[in-house]
Design brief:
single chain, mainly alpha, disordered C terminus
């Protein structure tokens, strides 16, 4: 900012730890973006719109259910280790068996939903099983060491670790693309499973201390369950807005149209990575200062929302302008994706603000507020998708997503604004409901 005087008071200082952490983490997430983009392009090209729509729909369902598999213990681990690193052992003693048992139940539910509700996708059972085990068992376990690194302030390292399974999936996609088998979906699904297993093995080796021995595992007590249940709901409602639309598309649209929509939605989702980087950098400070320094926390919240608003508007404009290039990037079989991305630009600012508001509420210990508005948004998404599918052609799912994202963003920001006007988020909880479920 040299030569321009003092920076604007509502913008984060470029010398601040969160700004520096955001830059470092954005760089790491930029690597993650390149990896995801490579995987997306390889898988989309080798499967074609129809198979890609089916694959994305069932994979999105697995991701949604996998978000609930840890029953919130990954966020409990993040919060507890942020405050007292010595707590990691006690949390992991019940986090690991909880994840394994809850994931087993959800894996059965996933297979039933795929075979009974998503029959149109026509995906073989072995493919379903490979994707389900990866996302509902292995990835939730993998999230525990990633959360521990994040809690210890190793933000970039945590994100590099989180990038590992994506890198391995890129390698699997590249191998399948080169081999060109008769059934690329099945072969990629098996590579998907191997990638998750290898990533979990390597992540275990990076932990500051070994996993607790099975002999020490235990069932969480009532208070631990009470602490985790809000975050469990938070995990699934935070993940579902980014995934449910792909599953709905696979059910409500012709599979080729679902493939076009899924490819476009993945593009705009990847473009919001800097917002995720900023929230990851801010989370440890929000966890620490939320109760003890409310004035400082309110200032940080305002900066986060202001930067998110400016970035997301600029991003939507840029995506609108470059949308025609995606036909060339994805190939001629994806003709029409540019129109899908144009409509999806309406959802971009709402999506970014929903992420920012949700991260703020989570860190301030108000998971139930976030759960509430994300459930409302999911209801809007389902209703809008069903109603619009019969009438608006290519605009139907993008408009449904935009409606849902803006509803969630406005409710979340509205809560934060009310909280600030009456003295801060913690005081406002007595008016709008606390995380304890009162």
């Amino acid at each position: 900012m040299r030569g321009w005087g003092r920076p604007l008071s509502w913008m984060p200082s470029t010398q601040g730890p969160i700004a520096k952490g955001t830059i470092r983490t954005t760089f790491v997430l930029g690597m993650r973006l390149l990896i995801q983009a490579g995987t997306l392009l390889l898988v989309a090209r080798m499967l074609g719109p129809q198979q890609f729509g089916a694959f994305t729909g069932i994979a999105a369902l697995a991701v949604m259910l996998g978000a609930f598999a840890s029953f919130g213990t990954n966020v409990v681990l993040l919060g507890e280790v942020s405050k007292a690193p010595g707590r990691r052992e006690e949390v992991l003693k019940y986090a690991v068996p909880t994840t394994l048992s809850c994931g087993g139940v959800l894996l059965v539910a996933y297979l039933l939903i795929c075979t009974l509700v998503l029959r149109e996708a026509g995906v073989p059972m072995m493919v379903l099983l490979a994707i389900g085990i990866s996302e509902i068992w292995l990835q939730p376990l993998f999230g525990l060491p990633a959360a521990e690194h994040l809690a210890l302030g190793r933000i970039a390292r945590s994100q590099m670790l989180a990038t590992l399974p994506l890198l391995l999936r890129l390698a699997a996609a590249g191998a399948v693309f080169l081999v060109r088998p008769d059934d690329p979906l099945a072969l990629y699904a098996y590579g998907y499973l191997v990638a998750s297993a290898v990533a979990l093995t390597l992540a275990s080796a990076t932990m500051p201390a070994p996993w607790p021995r099975p002999a020490t595992w235990r069932v969480p007590d009532k208070q631990e369950l009470r602490d985790a249940v809000g975050y469990a709901s938070l995990n699934i409602t935070a993940t579902t807005p980014a995934e449910l639309d792909k599953t709905l598309a696979a059910k409500l649209l012709p599979l080729s149209a679902a493939g076009l929509y899924a490819a476009g939605a993945r593009v705009i989702g990847a473009a919001t990575l800097p917002v995720i980087a900023m929230m990851l950098s801010a989370l440890p400070r929000l966890f620490r200062d939320g109760e003890d320094q409310p004035q400082r926390t309110r200032g940080l919240v305002l900066k986060i929302l202001a930067v998110t608003s400016l970035y997301s508007i600029a991003l939507a404009v840029l995506l609108w302008l470059v949308a025609p290039a995606f036909v060339w990037i994805f190939g001629t079989r994806y003709e029409g994706i540019q129109h899908t991305i144009h409509w999806l630009c309406l959802a971009v600012p709402g999506m970014a603000l929903r992420m920012a508001a949700g991260g703020i509420l989570m860190a301030l210990g108000r998971p139930w507020i976030r759960v509430g508005y994300e459930i409302a948004g999911l209801a809007v998404l389902v209703i809008a998708a069903v109603l619009l599918t019969a009438h608006l052609g290519a605009a139907r799912m993008p408009l449904a997503l935009a409606c849902a994202e803006w509803v969630m963003a406005l409710i979340g920001i509205g809560y934060i604004a009310i909280a600030r006007s009456i003295g801060g988020p913690l005081q406002a909880a007595t008016v709008l409901g606390s995380s304890d479920g009162d």
